[in-house]
Amino acid sequence: MTALLTALTLTQALVVLADGRPGEAQAALEHLDDCVSLGAAQLDNLRDPRVAERTLRGASSSWRSHLLIGIALAKEVPGAFVLRKLSLAGEVQRELTLAAALGPRQVAAHEALFGFFLHAPGFAGGGRDKARAEAEVLAKLDTFAGLLAQAQLDGDYRLAASEARTSEQIAALARISKDPARFAAALEARPQDARLRRDLSEILAELGQTGRSRHMLAEACQIDPLYESACHPR
User: Fold this and answer.
1) What's the CA gap between 52 and 39, in Å, rounded?
2) I want to staple 70 with a disulfide (CB 3.0 to 4.6 A). Which of 33, 95, 189, 198 is the partner?
3) Pair 172, 148: CB distance under 8 Å
4) Number of C-alpha atoms within 13 angstroms, CB side, residue 99?
């Protein structure tokens, strides 16, 4: 019951936030002392990542808060001017590094930092040597996470695929590889995973498969009402 009330409160807050009514959002959250959960929901559902960033700043001692702030900042990069992109890259690295420092045994924090090092250019703080070092950390924390990191470094997912056993691992492989065929296997293993459908929707949109993308997003909304604002943006 507590989990249900939390989900309903988050949904209510997201609705009024999407309508541009932050005061009512605050009222909706009077009985929910968890800005990290709200920030995560905002990051998933609202188009402006700065809303989530402002919320998450209220939990400065939480590794997950800094992880999500890093992700929120990264979402701002594509639409930023060149100098702002460089500034954002530094902020992203700082937040993800802090997340890993606050949660040294948190796989998600090190996965995000690995991703930054792998994809960011050297002049913005990235680098394959740094990524390889994070991959070694991941391998010590979680064997499969280490395999996924190595797969990204090598561009070969066959070994990771052969070791994927649980539905969570199959889903992680699909997300990392961004392969629609792997998503089919993941959705078969996790038929009620709305987030998985949302992720596939974004990948299909990038591939220009608009119809399939919208259909997948609609399915995500049917499973989880927290995705409603993504399905019907204002």
Assistant:
1) 5
2) 95
3) yes
4) 26
End-to-end CA distance of the chain: 30
Model pTM score: 0.78
Farthest-apart Cα atoms in the chain, separation: 50
Distance CA 190, CA 212 (A): 19
Q: Which residues of the chain have pLDDT under 70?
A: 1-33, 45-46, 226-234
The rounded distance, in Å, linking the Cα atoms of 74 and 81 is 13
The residue behind tokens 């078969």 is 188
Euclidean distance between CA atoms 32 and 100, whole angstroms = 26
3-state helix, strand, coil in the chain (%, to 5): 80, 0, 20
Tokens of 85: 């992109």
What length is written for the chain?
A: 234
CB 108 within 8 A of CB 115: no
- Contact (CB, 8 A) for 96 and 66: yes
> What is the tens place of the pLDDT at every residue in 55-76?
888 888 899 999 999 999 998 8
What digits encode the pLDDT tens for the residues 97-125? 999 999 999 999 999 999 999 999 999 99
Q: Are 53 and 85 in contact (CB under 8 A)?
A: no
CA–CA separation, 75 and 119 (whole Å):
14
* Rounded Cα–Cα distance for residues 173 and 157 (Å): 8
For residue 77, the 8-state DSSP code is: G
CA 9 to chain centre: 21
Instruction: Judge contact between 9 and 28, C-beta under 8 A.
Output: yes
